[in-house]
Amino acid sequence: MDKSFDSWRHRSIVWNNNDAGKVDFMKSMNKLTFVLLFVILILSVSLIWTVANSMDKGGVVDNHEANRNHPILISFDEKDLEQLEELVSRFKEGKGHNLMLIPPVVDGGYWIHDVYSNGREIEWTIDNTRDGMSGDGRGIRKYTCKAIDKNETEELFTIELSQCDGFEPNEKFSVISIWKE
After folding, report:
1. Is 70 exceeded by the pLDDT of residue 113?
2. Residue range 56-109, pLDDT digits in tens
3. Are 144 and 118 in contact (CB under 8 A)?
4. Each residue of 59-90: b (16+ CB within 10 Å) or e?
5. Which of 64, 72, 77, 169 stands the most exposed, by the fewest C-beta atoms within 10 Å?
């Protein structure tokens, strides 16, 4: 017992002899604690700001609305029409572009359009295998064409392909339409 008491007493004496080191250690710990608390505060404020800005009139903003410049078009509104116009203009400038179009379902299932362009040719694939109402026209159709245009009527905007493999040179056909709002 005496040994353990002496050992404790020895530690106490050593600790008391190092009071200056203890103060320096506590000062550096206070600085470290302050820095860590400051970083936590900044992260918390950033998180709260991000969550607050993602709210729109009490609801969460649709991710599709937040990032409308991606190559998947599903709304078929004015913003999507701008993306299609960009496809047409880039093709006419000899620049490549890629899009995926998934028009809203009217009756049946989805028709998925994959569009790849290198600026010289455009490959337009239409997959309606998910549409149970397609009947005999169900399947995957691929068109490789050398021209694309956007046309406008009173009611809709239409994207037309021409100079396609397997078609007459002057033959044009519509691949997608968007109703005017």
Report:
1. yes
2. 444 444 454 444 456 888 888 888 889 999 999 999 999 999 999 998 887 778
3. no
4. eeeeeeeeeeeeeebebbeeebbebbeebbee
5. 169
H helix or E strand, kind and range, residue 71: none
DSSP secondary structure letter of residue 145: E
- d(C-alpha 60, C-alpha 47), whole Å: 15
| CB 130, CB 137: distance < 8 Å | no
Instruction: Return all residues near 108 (Cβ < 8 A) that are at least 6 apart.
Output: 131, 132, 133, 134
How far apart (Å, rounded) are the C-alpha atoms in residues 101 and 92?
20
156 neighbors 177 (Cβ within 8 angstroms) = yes
Backbone angles phi, psi at 71, to 5 degrees: -85, 15
How large is the C-alpha radius of gyration of the chain? 33
| Phi, psi of 104, deg, nearest 5 | -60, 145
Q: What is the pLDDT of residues 27-67, one digit of tens each?
A: 677 788 888 888 888 888 888 887 777 654 444 444 544 44
Lowest mean pLDDT among 21-35, 105-119, 125-139, 164-178: 21-35
Q: How far apart are CA 2 and CA 14, in angstroms?
A: 18
Helical axes 19-53 vs 2-17, angle rounded to 10°: 70
